[in-house]
């Protein structure tokens, strides 16, 4: 169902208030790895508004490699996140980690993010298929494109067509950076499926100084959008600070991605 053979025209995902993701648009989603405080939400919202960015990312349920690391502010954080974004006309994307969270999160979320670690959690995918809310589905840590497409098929076949695929880097033997951002995936996925393709350069390379060139490369590779991490003080971020750009870098990145998209 997600194949170009089944549907030729690209799928567009309408989040309301003129925010549409897919072919012809370049969607920017930015924000911290984790929602940390009300003040932080205010600062990020202000930064996004100043740059006309309509979608804010931020995790409240965090999949962490260590159980002792910060695991997110949970529903309380999500309600705060929602309140500030709603007031400022900004849409919310945040990660859902398990089926039981969907119902509680439903009213506060515009896009459910499925993380790389949950990319093949088939129960979660089935449930999101029934949930009728847009989903950003990340590629698994060592996932093939075929596995990503089949995972999307789980959601789609349950009746939810509002799916975007996300390339976020795959694990390799190279340890000079966190992951290998596989930009080959962009044109290949775009040819195989009618779904929008988004790139996450922050997790893809894991090094803040190199987020900009990889984002620009993603634009030129044909991505329908980019999701990246920004924070008022990346050095103090509770998670993923090493790959998080500050607001000044973020502003420059936004301008340059928009220029690149114009050239495409
Ligand atoms: C994130 O977006 O912060 C995240 C945990 O991403 P991924 O699932 O790609 O590792
Ligand atoms: Mn992160």
Automatic annotation (TrEMBL):
Keywords: Transferase. It comes from Pontibacter amylolyticus. Residues 13-262 form the DAHP synthetase I/KDSA domain. This is 3-deoxy-7-phosphoheptulonate synthase. The chain holds residues 70 to 333 of 336 of the full protein.
